[in-house]
Structure formats: structure tokens, C-alpha cells
Amino acid sequence: MTDCAVADETDWCGAYRLVRRPASNEESVLELQQQLHEKDMKLTDIRLEALSSAHQLEQLRDTMNHMKVGFHLRSFAFLFDFTL
Length: 84
Hints:
By secondary structure, the protein is mainly α. The protein is 81% helix and 0% strand.
């Protein structure tokens, strides 16, 4: 038998390394898939947060518009001495 430290790909140690290589590739693929999943989850959280913020902003704009309309109606009523 040869020493695996000096073995090339033609002996049994090299063949063992070739057989093991896909396993490490599979581990790398699994690790990359896990990282992708984690980043995808973070991205989803960020998107949900942005959607929520946009909704809050829209509600604030609606509130401001209603306040402006109310202010204008009161101003109009005051100018023409209407009672609201």
C-alpha cells in the first residue's frame, strides 16, 4: 500500500479523495442553500417592513388630507358665517 500523503489519483488513496470530493461539494451546496434561505428570509422581512411603512405613510397622508379638508371647510364656514 502507498502512503496517502504522497498518493496520486491513480492509487486507492487518490480514488478515495475523488469519491469524497462530491460529498464535500454536496456539503458546500447544502451550506450555500442554507445561506440563500437565510438571506431570502431576511429579504422577505425587509420587504414586509417596507410594505408596512408604505401603508403607514399612506394612512398619514389620508389623515393629513382629511384635516386639510376640514380646515378649509371651517375656514369657508367662518368666512360666510355658516354653522357646521
